[in-house]
Amino acid sequence: MADISLQTYTLVITGAPYSSQAPQTALDFARAAVTAGHQIDRVFLYGDGIHMASALICPPSDEPHWPRLWSEFLVEHQIPAVACVASALRRGLIDSGEQTRYELSAHNIRTPFEIAGLGEWVEAGTCSKVIYFHSGV
């Protein structure tokens, strides 16, 4: 039997839920990887992918709630998840720190996501593989 080495992955999601298959495909991959014994080092949301971290997304009850499903998976497996600060601010995704900094009336980030800079993504260089899930446009 071949020796299958375990991998660590960073997943970069750039496609938005409900307008792209990227979040769904990434979650399917992440579940399969964890089931196979691999490790997801972190999930990094960039561009329109940051919509996955919004606490205000409310899909119809007969559709999968991708942000909630992602949140549950991340919490269950204790995987850090970061939304790019520049992408987040451009698209109205705000955490309590940015709310205070910009004197905004509210914040809307979903737990366990955090807003951080590209330095978080650079740290992903310590994993075995970085896999991108994008909108395909």
TrEMBL record:
GO MF term (any one): sulfurtransferase activity
Keywords, ordered alphabetically: Cytoplasm, Transferase
Principal subcellular localization: cytoplasm
One Pfam family this sequence matches: DsrE
Keyword Flavoprotein: no
GO CC annotations, alphabetized: sulfurtransferase complex
GO biological process terms, semicolon-separated: tRNA wobble position uridine thiolation
Localization annotation: Cytoplasm
Coiled-coil regions listed: none
Sequence similarity: Belongs to the DsrE/TusD family.
NCBIfam families per the UniProt record, alphabetical: PRK00207.1, sulf_tusD_dsrE
UniProt-recorded name of the protein: Sulfurtransferase
